[in-house]
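subagent[fold] <- orchestrator: predict structure for attached chain, return tokens only, no commentary.
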Amino acid sequence: MDKEDLLKNIEALTIYTGTYGRKKCTCSCIGCTQELISNKIKQYQGNIEQIKTIIKYLPNLKTAYILGNPDISVDTSFCNQVAKEFIKNNIKVMFSTSGYDGLNTVKKITAGIDKENIEYISFSIDTLDNQKLQYLKGNKKINIEEIEKAIEYCIEKDITVKIQPTLWEINQNDYKKIIDRYSKMGIKWFTFHAGSFETINKENPLKHIKPEKWMKIVEDIDNIARKKDLKAKAPKIFIEEKEEMVYKEKQKLYCKHGGKDLQIWLCEEGIKATVCPILSAVYQEYIFDLEKEDIKLVDKCNEGCIVCDKCIDKYLRNESIGNKGKEFIVYNKKIHNICRYYADRIKYG
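subagent[fold] -> orchestrator:
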């Protein structure tokens, strides 16, 4: 399949509106996903002409998930303009925020936009403990009370809210309190992420969650979701042998085949894209120029994801079979570490 056909398949876009990264962000998250990119690319704020170009190259785009530069609290007015440009072309939008400057950010980002065109606003609330939250976000000004004012505003305006925590060892037991608190506020949507490639090539004080604990978290969240009738999930990234057989049968990894999703950064030298953000964080040669280059797909991962073993810290890798990070022994069973990006989309077993 050629580039034009692959781009015609894209229906969902995730977009960073520039390359400021952690250095110019309103927060300084210890587990920042954009630090790897911003350290190697000149800092830049995107423009509307680049958005028009994206729309031209992605003729079947249905949704755009706007992350900001790298948060919508950094370049709020521009993100609002970006959203309006997408909406003008019949593309619905979503926003993601750390919650910094809570209510003000949400009011500015949604100004002049009909709620029908906003699929949701996602808040990355990793814990209800203010002190712990400020540590994880790297900013002592952020606090739960201000974030919840923004959430209440969204509820009042009938804008769907999604709570999207990232779990590390430090906050691995906070998921139940998060679900309990916000489900009582009427929120039905929760997506939990496992801290992963943020630790690549640097010393990071955050430790990853061990397989046996993560498997328990996934099971708990599934049970809570059923009992409370919620849309709540955590990716099933550690699976047993029988599930791994199903995974191998079903897998059609984006890194090898492309898919319906694309992630983009607006850069000074052009519009950069990847079919898998985790892959590009590990191997930046899989970032391509939307206008000037062919889509870069992996042609060497016949046995599955080539980065899942690199998505865990060195301490956890040392506990794996052969220190390779791909297989573990948990309760006398062999457990497989599989593609995080793919596991978000399919449940096995």
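orchestrator: received. Logging for downstream: The chain has 14 helices and 15 strands. The CA atoms of residues 127 and 174 lie 6 Å apart.
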